[in-house]
Amino acid sequence: xxxxxxxxxxxxxxxxxxxxxxxxxxxxxxxxxxxxxxxxxxxxxxxxxxxxxxxxxxxxxxxxxxxxxxxxxxxxxxxxxxxxxxxxxxxxxxxxxxxxxxxxxxxxxxxxxxxxxxxxxxxxxxxxxxxxxxxxxxxxxxxxxxxxxxxxxxxxxxxxxxxxxxxxxxxxxxxxxxxxxxxxxxxxxxxxxxxxxxxxxxxxxxxxxxxxxxxxxxxxxxxxxxxxxxxxxxxxxxxxxxxxxxxxxxxxxxxxxxxxxxxxxxxxxxxxxxxxxxxxxxxxxxxxxxxxxxxxxxxxxxxxxxxxxxxxxxxxxxxxxxxxxxxxxxxxxxxxxxxxxxxxxxxxxxxxxxxxxxxxxxxxxxxxxxxxxxxxxxxxxxxxxxxxxxxxxxxxx
Length: 397
Ligand SMILES: [Zn+2]
What we know:
Elements: E1 6-13, E2 21-29, E3 36-42, H1 43-49, E4 54-55, E5 59-62, E6 68-71, H2 85-94, H3 102-115, E7 119-124, H4 131-138, E8 142-149, H5 157-172, E9 180-186, H6 194-207, E10 212-215, H7 220-227, H8 231-243, H9 249-253, H10 263-270, E11 278-281, H11 287-296, E12 299-302, H12 304-309, H13 317-322, E13 327-329, H14 334-337, H15 342-352, H16 358-373
Parallel strand pairs: 1-4, 1-5, 6-7, 7-8, 8-9, 10-11, 11-12, 12-13
Antiparallel strand pairs: 1-2, 2-3
Helix pairs in contact: 5-6, 15-16
The structure holds zinc ion (ZN).
Residues 70, 72, 123, 214, 280, 332 line the site of zinc ion.
């Protein structure tokens, strides 16, 4: 290592191993065009070990770049609106449907890359069939692009599943090393029939396909499973009468709603959790649900801004962390999350979870995201190349 060492102190240092540490630092040296990490650790210790090092500009966080583990890029031309969930669905998602597609996805990917995210988990709407081939064949970011599947009618489960198998075969041929891998996203616990859930989970397990599922986003999801009533049950009945007249909730679920049933216990009973899916949102859960998810070894993506904007509740992060469940962060779409910048999400997570040790948020944004997407964070340790991307931008929180 050449003599011109610089010691960069940070309020939080995450080397990619263990937990982030407070008052950390990295010492970097070597030629300007290829700076190398000489040491990383406790700032005071490193100041004693490297008294000759120049003092670098302090950072709030030094860490590998974070991962945006859940987005809907094809909704990037939507206009953001913070509305209660049951107004947001018709007034934003449905009303803006013509804005959904490849042009938005391209703009969205540009925003994700510009934000400095290391990898991406993106759910792709089947109504925009040109988005997945483009994501898999032509983009330069790592992570997973999930083919979304919606079909609540068990009578068409086999047919839909056959189409998914054919799509997966065709799309997997487009995967490239270093690019996005293909995954599957059964849309939500109640928008895919029990029969199709089982078929998709089995298939994903056999084929090693990563899974993401929206679960327990709004409080009314608990009512739907417990009693078949409430605003979600009403809006779901309206949707189903339009697409599959006469279909009942009991037929969709393959059983009657019941006091013992939650979206999580329902998915567990179908064997879906055995495929170790990533569960998105998980805001409205019971203590038992948290235990079930921990036992299954499933992981969770939280989208704090989206949940707050749609008035869905607050993710019980401390309880999930205490149960040892891997948590990652995602922006969701711009329609509910406002931006695709994962650093905005991290800032919001710190604001919305003042009770939480910020080290957990940093670790989740990096390690949690990489674990979920099957990618790997670089390490900040002796001998590794230094990157300015390790200095996280400071956002208002
Ligand atoms: Zn989503």
